Amino acid sequence: MRMPLALTATLSLACAIPRGTAEPLSIPISVTSHNRSNVDVYLLCGDRDAQLLGVVHGKEGALFEVPVSRARCVSGLNFFLVHRDLNHGYWVGPLRPRTGSSVHLTIEKYAGLSVARVDIGAR
Question: What pTM did the predictor assign?
Answer without folding.
Answer: 0.78
